[in-house]
C-alpha cells in the first residue's frame, strides 16, 4: 500500500487499492470450516477404501507386482552390470524366483500332507485333554443344570408339579420372549 500511495499524486483523490491478502475473510466462522474440511477428508478416505475393496482383484496383484519389482531390481541391476540386457536379466531373475518357490513348495509338500493326516488325531487328543482338565472343574453349563434341578425340586415341593412340566407349556411372546404358563 505504501507503493501505491507514493505513486499517487498528493492532491489526487485516488484511494489505495486493498490487496486480496489484506482483505477481510468472506466467512466469519472459521471453526466450522475445520469440521467441514475434516468431514470431507474422512468421507474421502472412506470412499477410497471402499473403492480399493471393490477393485481389490485389480489392485492386489498390481501392488504385489510393484513390490516384487522393487525387491528384485537390485538383482536385475547386478546382471546389467555384467553386460546382460535388462529385459533378459529380468526374465532370468523371474525364472530363478519361480523355480526357487516351486522347489520350496515341493520340499514342504510331504510335511504338509503329514500334518494334514495327523490333524484329526491331534484334534481328538486335544479335545480329550481339555475334557479331562475341564471335566473335573464345574463349568457354567453344569452349574446352571444343577441350579435348575434344585429349582425343580423346590417348585415340586411347593406346588406338586415339576418345573420341567411347566416349561413344556411355553408359548412364544410377540417380542420373542417365552412366557411360562401355569
Write up what this structure looks like.
The structure is a single chain. By secondary structure, the chain is mainly alpha-helical. It has 3 domains: 54 residues; 70 residues; 45 residues, no CATH class. It contains 6 helices and 2 strands, in the order H-H-H-H-H-H-E-E. It has a two-stranded antiparallel ribbon. A hairpin with a 5-residue loop joins strand 1 and strand 2. It is flat. The relative contact order is 0.03. The model has no long low-confidence stretch (mean pLDDT 77).
Domain module tally? 3
Q: How many H/I helices?
A: 6
Overall helicity: over 70%
Spatial order of the strands forming the largest sheet? 1-2
Gyration radius over CA: 39 Å
Poorly predicted regions: none
Largest sheet: 2 strands, antiparallel
Report, as a whole number of angstroms, the end-to-end distance: 94 Å
SSE arrangement, N to C: HHHHHHEE
Secondary structure class reads mainly alpha
Classify the beta-strand content into a percent band: under 5%
Could you give the topology of this structure?
Elements: H1 2-7, H2 30-54, H3 56-81, H4 86-135, H5 140-159, H6 163-168, E1 170-172, E2 178-180
Antiparallel strand pairs: 1-2
Helix pairs in contact: 3-4
Descriptive terms for the model:
73% helix; 182 residues; mainly alpha; flat
